[in-house]
């Protein structure tokens, strides 16, 4: 009973926030509603017992993809008046495209039928009580579907390389920091152990050598004790 | 009584009691962590630190909290009001939410779930939203710059953190936090996986926006970064969230590498001390290192921070992951 209630609650919020993604006036609000939708989808996964998928959904989509998305949307300087300008003109085209898509969906779903064994598999992400979710996924993914898994990984890699190639520019004249060269450099810095209170003048480190003071030294601490203040 | 405790209301009451029993010590820890930080920093800089309010300054956190409560909450005129007030709440909420799965002792977790480590990773990766929403909703360029920096930084360091966690998981063979601690009964993971321990610790510094990676709030160029417009309780919530996140990350380090609640040697004098105390001691050690680092290192430059994350930590942790997998496979130590 509680699970059913929770399901309807999360499903309702999911649909409502998905609607808000499309209708919100501010694009940042749209992205935030999208994140809410992801969360509720994760909750639905949890109710179905697919805890691994739920966590991965939150980590990948909410924790990484949506952050970058939000990042970009916040940086955009969007003129809302211009965005809404052509609404009247484009509305019929949008309606036609949407209508065609809807018809196609209806056609596909009209001829849809469930397999006979589907009912037994419903809501059973675990092959047994002793096998956890992640283990069950791993057993299938890395055995039967290992080539497909690797292929999808390769596709993602190619996409990543493509993005890098598109954005990489080798600008002439930039001065890059070579950290290993800096760290490997020796001789310019030395570590000297100085007796406490003696100062560094006597060791000859300070350059250029100062002329000898004429008047006799005043209080010993006055000359050397300073220079430690100022830092909170 | 037994009948009542197994009803839904009874289960709810038990969970509430457990939550209070965990969160009250955590919040007290947060309060005293602020004092400890000031005291330790003071000692490292040859000062006294807060010593006026109460004996040894022990009541200072409460004086600070009272001061924060008394101040006026200011919402900037151009700010997005709801998101502006929502951001600190989110930060604080996430910092508290993650404690649900932390096992303080054997079987002492509020929710001992199968995917505990993934849950923690998910919650910690959400922490960036509090910052990015705060920066955007403030309608201030300093806050926004701080938020952008923070978003890029946290996403970058999460990648190598993920690899470190995967390496530990390979040695355990489970995503359950209790199982991770139990797998360290023979040897704590910080010894065999020492480089990963270091990488993880440095990544947690970046993840919690602590020195030397505190660029999101770099006061020398961004005034105070993402929370420059916040005052009063909304600021206090950010502050509490940051310190609670520090404790959480220390707890995570303890669970992954320092053997959780296990004593250092499973022998007589060490086993007299109960597990939660060992757990707290290890967290305190990590927290001391957090403060020690803050007192020792200057702030990173932003390009150096990115270089460290992407060009040093990421390849190294990936290499170590493959190496660990190879060693586990070849020696047959791979957990079933």
UniProtKB/TrEMBL annotation, chain A:
Gene Ontology molecular function: NADH dehydrogenase (ubiquinone) activity; oxidoreductase activity; quinone binding
Membrane topology: Multi-pass membrane protein
UniProt keyword list: Cell membrane, Membrane, NAD, Oxidoreductase, Quinone, Transmembrane, Transmembrane helix
GO CC terms: plasma membrane
Localization terms from the record: Cell membrane
EC numbers for this chain: 7.1.1.-
Gly residues biased stretches: 222-232
Membrane-traversing stretches: 6-24, 31-50, 56-78, 90-115, 147-168
Principal localisation: membrane
Principal EC category: translocase
Keyword Membrane: yes
Family designation: Belongs to the complex I subunit 6 family.
Protein name: NADH-quinone oxidoreductase subunit J
From TrEMBL, chain B:
Keyword Membrane attributed: yes
Record GO cellular component, one term: plasma membrane
Oligomer and partners: NDH-1 is composed of 14 different subunits. Subunits NuoA, H, J, K, L, M, N constitute the membrane sector of the complex.
Keywords assigned by UniProt, alphabetized: Cell membrane, Membrane, NAD, Oxidoreductase, Quinone, Translocase, Transmembrane, Transmembrane helix, Ubiquinone
Catalytic activity: a quinone + NADH + 5 H(+)(in) = a quinol + NAD(+) + 4 H(+)(out)
Identification of the protein by name: NADH-quinone oxidoreductase subunit H
Free-text function comment from the UniProt entry: NDH-1 shuttles electrons from NADH, via FMN and iron-sulfur (Fe-S) centers, to quinones in the respiratory chain. The immediate electron acceptor for the enzyme in this species is believed to be ubiquinone. Couples the redox reaction to proton translocation (for every two electrons transferred, four hydrogen ions are translocated across the cytoplasmic membrane), and thus conserves the redox energy in a proton gradient. This subunit may bind ubiquinone.
Similarity annotation: Belongs to the complex I subunit 1 family.
One MF annotation (Gene Ontology) recorded for this entry: oxidoreductase activity, acting on NAD(P)H, quinone or similar compound as acceptor
GO biological process: aerobic respiration
The protein's Enzyme Commission number: 7.1.1.-
